Each structure stands twice: as structure tokens, then as C-alpha cells.
């Protein structure tokens, strides 16, 4: 049976139901692990075992920290480097008081209007189930891979991946396993997200900004609010925030962003000349790029203040006040250089900085590698009109943990993502179209058939 016939023969209706059923299992991750209901994580792992009997028979399996499965589909003694397919099955909580905004209950797994609805349908149970459907189907058709296929599904990606992907990556390093490539979530096919783009763009993440959380604390004299000093702890925190927001980190044109803009240039109408000559014109147009939150995030390290605290009563001056910031660190900067910037723009102010979670920017994967070319070919086989575009991921994925075992790390899901779709991720009415989900499965079948 040819690869094309293998692809056409998979049972889409069954796959759709499997994704819907997986959404019903509330595998919510929380920064406080004590809040996580691990019985539901056990239920999800049992669901995978019962739903994919061919994988259970043909693949080796081990659990990392009890909940992060590693599946190994072994080849017949081939010496080719293995490939690693990633996904995560934990999901973010439903925002308080937002359930009324959902057209379908967030964990209903409802199949309606040619979509599968619910939390995880786009982030990231769709990826997990698509990989499993593709492998299960290929095994059932007698396909034998020419290299070992590894699959790792994290259970804590949404809270940093320290117990799942981080530990799995450590195991691979200890075993000296080097992968030919790693494929994870991240990029997609975009159609209406960039103004002026005249063709669909298949954006493949070749790098990620670093993601770091810090806590800034200020101590001052307390006392009664009826006799306040010229500056209070909360007032000092406010000045620190204001100074940082009014003095952003310097703009820089990195390789992923430069290649993205140049690749898109022929399809951007009136912006064609500027993007084609971005190297020379960047110093001139960087201030214009900074006006959009999206393009600003692509050209500099960003510092976003997300939480504040201090004080227990309305008439008492707090002795301590604090703020939490999320840093998204651009290649060429570092966590420490970003902290130095915060100190530099706040001269004469006494405060402490605590690193809560520190991750440096990832390395940049090649766009000239064979795996990247294969990805482009497969994508164009499914979406012939799409232009293959490398890009810098602003968000983070589990894939960054595997840099010690692979140089070719690519972040892409074979779905068309509209502005509306994108807005539903981590928000209300998350859903995936059945055609998108079908194309994800086809993507993995084709990718694995070439390996």
C-alpha cells in the first residue's frame, strides 16, 4: 500500500471522537502542584493506553515522574538518528466567571458546526491525539519506520515543564541520545494575522525567546496612613514600573526575524521594499515596528508587570510592597543583562530582585537543514498555496528543553489559525475545525512515512 493510500484510509470520525473524549478529562495544571488533580492525569494516560492498542503493543513506554510518557517506536536496527515528536496534555484553567462566555461547556468536547470544542482543542491535546492517531494508523497498516520514533507528552508544559519535559530531556542526555530533529507545537498557517500579507504563510518556529519571572520587592517604614512620608513602598514600586515601561530594552534585528520579514517581503504589497531591505532600513523603521505589540515583541526583550501586592489595611502603610514581571528575553540579551537594565533605569532606588523562573533564549535552528526542507515539502503538499516562513516564537514550548539532544528543533502545527482562533487559546470558546485536525493527522502520517 502506498503512503498516500495509507494516509487516505485513516478513520477521521474515530479520531475526532478521540480528541473530543480527551478534552473531557480535566488535566488542568497549576503553579501550585498541590492543586493538581493527578487522578485525572492517570485517567488521561489510561485513556491513551486503551484508545491506541497498536501503540501499546508495538512501542516501548516509560513514565517520567509518573505522568510524562515516553513512547519509543523502534526501527529494524537502522542506524539513522531518531526523531522526537512532542506535545503536552495539560491545559490552563478556565478563568473565573468566564464559563458563561463559552458557547459550549469548556470540557464538554462537543462536536458541533464542523468543530471540536473545548479547552485543549488547540493547546495542545490536538497535537497529542494527532501524533497518536498517525502512529496507531501506520502501525495498523504494517508500516515500519526507518529510524526510531520517540514521542514525549508533557504534563506540566503550561507551568514551565520542569517535571515533565525537563526531566525527559535530562534522561535523553544521560543516555547520549541525539535526535535528527524535534517537532513541537508553535507555528501554524496564518492568513489574516499580518496586515498586507497576500498569501497564507506557514510559519515555522526556529527559536524561542527566553521566559523568566522575577519578583521585585521594596521595603520601607510602615505606620499610619494619616501621616505618610514623601514616598511609600507602594509608591516606589510604581516608580520602578514606570521607569521600566518608559525605558524599554534596545531593539535588535535577529536572524529569525530578519529571515521572516525577507521571506514575506514579496507578498506584503506596499511593505515589499522596506522588508526586502530590512537590514539597511531597520535603524530607521524600528520605532515604527515598536508601535505594534506583536512586532515590538519580535525586536526586543520585553518586560511585562503582571502582579502586584503590598498592604493589609486601607489605613496602614505597608512595610513591604512587591511586583512580579515576566521577561521575554531576545537572542543576544540574557536574563542577567535584562536585570541590569532594570537596575540601570532605576538609579538611586533600593530594591531586591528575586528570580522565580529563569530561562535564557533558545539557540536558533537552521533553515538549511534537511528536516526543515522536508517540513516545508510536507506542508506544501497539504497547503500548496502557503509560503514557508521561519519565525521567532514569542511564547515558550517544551521543545527548548531538548537543546542538549538536538540542533534541529522546529515548532509547527499543520493548522490554519485565524485571528479568532488565536484569540481563543487560553481564553473562551477554544475549538479546532475538523479539517484542521484532519490535516494535522495527515501531516504526521506523511512526516513519519518519510522517516
List keywords for this structure.
single chain, 451 residues, alpha+beta, Aminopeptidase, Alpha-Beta Plaits, 2 domains, 8-stranded mixed sheet, 4-stranded antiparallel sheet, 35% helix, globular
Structure described in brief:
Helices cover 35% and strands 23% of the residues. It has helices spanning 3-8, 12-23, 38-51, 53-58, 125-140, 165-174, 233-245, 255-264, 272-276, 278-289, 293-299, 335-344, 370-382, 419-424, 434-449, and strands at residues 60-64, 68-73, 83-88, 111-112, 115-117, 149-154, 181-190, 201-208, 210-219, 223-224, 302-309, 316-317, 320-329, 352-357, 387-393, 409-417, 431-433. The two termini are 16 Å apart.
How are the SSEs placed, and which strands pair?
Layout: H1 3-8, H2 12-23, H3 38-51, H4 53-58, E1 60-64, E2 68-73, E3 83-88, E4 111-112, E5 115-117, H5 125-140, E6 149-154, H6 165-174, E7 181-190, E8 201-208, E9 210-219, E10 223-224, H7 233-245, H8 255-264, H9 272-276, H10 278-289, H11 293-299, E11 302-309, E12 316-317, E13 320-329, H12 335-344, E14 352-357, H13 370-382, E15 387-393, E16 409-417, H14 419-424, E17 431-433, H15 434-449
Parallel strand pairs: 3-6, 3-7, 7-16, 8-15
Antiparallel strand pairs: 1-2, 2-6, 4-5, 5-17, 7-8, 9-13, 9-14, 10-12, 11-13
Amino acid at each position: 500500500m502506498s503512503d498516500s493510500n495509507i494516509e487516505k484510509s485513516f478513520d477521521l470520525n474515530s479520531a475526532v471522537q478521540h480528541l473530543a473524549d480527551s478534552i473531557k478529562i480535566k488535566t488542568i495544571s497549576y503553579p501550585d502542584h498541590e492543586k493538581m488533580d493527578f487522578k485525572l492525569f492517570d485517567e488521561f494516560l489510561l485513556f491513551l493506553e486503551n484508545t491506541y492498542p497498536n501503540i501499546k503493543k508495538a512501542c516501548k513506554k516509560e513514565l517520567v515522574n509518573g505522568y510524562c510518557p515516553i513512547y519509543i517506536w523502534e526501527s529494524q536496527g537502522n542506524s539513522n538518528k531518531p526523531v522526537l515528536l512532542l506535545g503536552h496534555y495539560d491545559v490552563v484553567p478556565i478563568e473565573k466567571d468566564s464559563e458563561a462566555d463559552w458557547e459550549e461547556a469548556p470540557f464538554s468536547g462537543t462536536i458541533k458546526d464542523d468543530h471540536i470544542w473545548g479547552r485543549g482543542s488547540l493547546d495542545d491535546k490536538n497535537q497529542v491525539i494527532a501524533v497518536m492517531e498517525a502512529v496507531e494508523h501506520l502501525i495498523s497498516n504494517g508500516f515500519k519506520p526507518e529510524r526510531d520514533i520517540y514521542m514525549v507528552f508533557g504534563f506540566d508544559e503550561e507551568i514551565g515543564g520542569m517535571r515533565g519535559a525537563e526531566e525527559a530531556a535530562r534522561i535523553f542526555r544521560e543516555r547520549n541520545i541525539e535526535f535528527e530533529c524535534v517537532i513541537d507545537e508553535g507555528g501554524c498557517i496564518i492568513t489574516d494575522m499580518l496586515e498586507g500579507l497576500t498569501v497564507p504563510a506557514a510559519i515555522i518556529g526556529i527559536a524561542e525567546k527566553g521566559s523568566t519571572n522575577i519578583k521585585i520587592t521594596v521595603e520601607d517604614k510602615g505606620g499610619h496612613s494619616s501621616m505618610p512620608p514623601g514616598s511609600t513602598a507602594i509608591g516606589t514600586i510604581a516608580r520602578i514600573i514606570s521607569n521600566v515601561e518608559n525605558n524599554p530594552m534596545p531593539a535588535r534585528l535577529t536572524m529569525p526575524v530578519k529571515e521572516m520579514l525577507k521571506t514575506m517581503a514579496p507578498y506584503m504589497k506596499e511593505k515589499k521594499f522596506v522588508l526586502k531591505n530590512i537590514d539597511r532600513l531597520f535603524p530607521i523603521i524600528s520605532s515604527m515596528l515598536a508601535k505594534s505589540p506583536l512586532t515590538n515583541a519580535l525586536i526586543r526583550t520585553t518586560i511585562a508587570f503582571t502582579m502586584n501586592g503590598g498592604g493589609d489595611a486601607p489605613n496602614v502603610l505597608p512595610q513591604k510592597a512587591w511586583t512580579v514581571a515576566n521577561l521575554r528575553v531576545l537572542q543576544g540579551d540574557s536574563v542577567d543583562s535584562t536585570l541590569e537594565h532594570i537596575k540601570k533605569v532605576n538609579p538611586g532606588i533600593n530594591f531586591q530582585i528575586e528570580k522565580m523562573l529563569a530561562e535564557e533564549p533558545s539557540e536558533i535552528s537552521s533553515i538549511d537543514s534537511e528536516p526543515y526542507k522536508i517540513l516545508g515539502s510536507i506542508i506544501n503538499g497539504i497547503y500548496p498555496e502557503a509560503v514557508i516562513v521561519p519565525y521567532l516564537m514569542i511564547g515558550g514550548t517544551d521543545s527548548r528543553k531538548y537543546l542538549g539532544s538536538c540542533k534541529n528543533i522546529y515548532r509547527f502545527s499543520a493548522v490554519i489559525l485565524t485571528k479568532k482562533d488565536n484569540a481563543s487559546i487560553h481564553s473562551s470558546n477554544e475549538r479546532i475545525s475538523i479539517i484542521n485536525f484532519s490535516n494535522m493527522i495527515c501531516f504526521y502520517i506523511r512526516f513519519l512515512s518519510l522517516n
